[in-house]
Amino acid sequence: MYTLLSGLYKYMFRRDEYCILILGLDNAGKTTFLEQTKTRFSRNYKGMSFSKITTTVGLNIGTIDVGKARLMFWDLGGQEELQSLWDKYYAESHGVIYVIDSTDEERLSESKRAFEKMVTSDALEGVPILVLANKQDVETCLSIPDIKTAFSDCINKIGKRDCLTQACSALTGKGVNEGIEWMVKCVVRNIHRPPRQKDIK
Ligand SMILES: Nc1nc2c(ncn2[C@@H]2O[C@H](COP(=O)(O)OP(=O)(O)O)[C@@H](O)[C@H]2O)c(=O)[nH]1
Ligand SMILES: [Mg+2]
C-alpha cells in the first residue's frame, strides 16, 4: 500500500527537468533577465534589487517550475574570455536563451559573431533558441526588424529547430512571460522526439 501511494505521489508531483543556457555578450541583460524570471515564476522569491546586479564572472543559476516542467537556468558570463567556456555546457542543455542588447548598435556585429559560433555548434543541434531583443524599454533602441536584418545571414545556420525572436525588457518584465512560456512549450515537445545525435553516441 505504501509503495502504491508513494508511487502515485511521485507520479503526480514528478517534474521533467530541463537545462536552459542564458547566453549573450556581457552587459546584454542576462542576469537581470534571470532575476526577473525568478521573481515572476517563483512564488516566494524575493529577488535582489535589479540595480544591485553586477557583472557575472562565474555562473548564476536559477530554477523555476512551470506546470510539470522544471527549468534550470545557467547564466554564463559573456565576456570574450568566458565565451570559450560556453560549449562545455552545450551537451547538457535542452534550450538556449540568447540575449541581445538592443541599445548597443556598436556591438551588434560582435553579438552576431558569438551567436553564429554558438548556433553552428554540433552539440546544440536541434536545440530551441529564444533570441531576446532586450532593453526595448529604451526609446532609441533597435527594433526587431533592425535586429533580424543584422542577423539575417545566420538564418540558414539556425536550421529546422524552433527559434523565436522576442522583444523584451528584462528590467520592466515586458516579453519575459511570453519568452519563457514559448521555451517551455518547445522543450516539452522535444522530449518526445527521437534523441539528438550526441545522445546516441
Ligand atoms: N534599460 C534597460 N536596462 C537593462 C535591461 N536589462 C538589463 N539592463 C541593464 O544593463 C546592465 C547589464 O545588465 P546585466 O543583467 O548585468 O547583464 P549581463 O552582463 O548580460 O548579465 C545593467 O545596468 C542592467 O540594469 C533592460 O531591459 N532595460
Ligand atoms: Mg551577468
TrEMBL record:
GO terms for cellular component: cytosol; membrane; trans-Golgi network. It comes from the Eukaryota. It is found in: Golgi apparatus, trans-Golgi network. Gene3D superfamilies: P-loop containing nucleotide triphosphate hydrolases (3.40.50.300). GO terms for biological process: gastrulation; Golgi to plasma membrane protein transport; intracellular protein transport; protein localization to Golgi apparatus; retrograde transport, endosome to Golgi. It holds the Pfam family Arf. The keyword S-adenosyl-L-methionine does not apply. GTP binds at residues 24-31, 78, 134-137. Keywords: Acetylation, Golgi apparatus, GTP-binding, Magnesium, Metal-binding, Nucleotide-binding. InterPro entries: P-loop_NTPase, Small_GTP-bd, Small_GTPase_ARF, Small_GTPase_ARF/SAR. GO terms for molecular function: GTP binding; GTPase activity; metal ion binding. The keyword Cell cycle does not apply. Mg(2+) binds at residues 31, 56. Interacts with SYS1. Belongs to the small GTPase superfamily. Arf family. Trans-Golgi-associated GTPase that regulates protein sorting. Controls the targeting of ARL1 and its effector to the trans-Golgi. Required for the lipidation of chylomicrons in the intestine and required for VLDL lipidation in the liver. This is ADP-ribosylation factor-related protein 1.
